[in-house]
Amino acid sequence: MLDSALHYRQLRYDEAKESKTAVDFGLATSGFASTFLKLNKLDSSLYYSKQCISYGIKAGRYDFVRGSRLLIAQIFHKKGFLDSALYYGNEVFKAYKSVPDTSNMIITTLLLSDVYNTRKQYDSAYKYLSLYSSLKKNFSEEEKVKKVQTILFDDIARQQRLEQQSKNEQQQYETRVKIYSLIGGLAVLLTISLILYGNNKQKQKSKNEIERAYHDLKSTQAQLIQSEKMAYLAN
User: Fold this and answer.
1) Contact 24, 15 (CB under 8 A)
2) CA-CA distance, 224 to 86, in Å (whole number)?
3) Where in the chain are the domains?
4) Which CATH architecture has domain 2-120?
5) Tell me: the pLDDT tens digits for 10-52?
């Protein structure tokens, strides 16, 4: 598992070498430092922690700096360099307190309690252990509040989505009504047009029939006149 983590860290480091940005180098070296600490390769972890501090300062990412100093305090604690562990531990605790970053303050106070306990400075060990317990309790309460806030936020967001969905559905309904009304109006106009067209066609037909009848009447009249003339001449 850790070998896979190292492989992943190497890929991140290779990407950082391509991008050449301090942020990417900071992320890559931080990952190396954490993984080597888990592997108990303390010198390698210390090397990359220091590298990460340098890149963090260049990038203005002081979260990198704080995280790396906490790792260094843990490294020195494991190495048995208790004075250095206390120095870095106290410095990074102040840094986390100024942010504030409760979760990392909890980690740091537990580390300081362990270091003081190893040095047999039990009063200081108890002080940081009490602070650890207090921070953990407060953090738990904060997490509960955050969960409640998240639930409330999600509920509000869900209500807003439902309201927006209702508005969209209403708009779609109104649009459909307008479309159907328009279609209905066009159908009525088409029907009227067809009726008028039929009437006009009938009128035209009637007119043609009248004209044809009139023409036939005129023709018959002419024939009668002609016949009368012929009869008169014959007599």
Assistant:
1) yes
2) 142
3) 2-120
4) Alpha Horseshoe (1.25)
5) 888 888 889 899 999 999 999 999 999 999 999 999 999 999 9
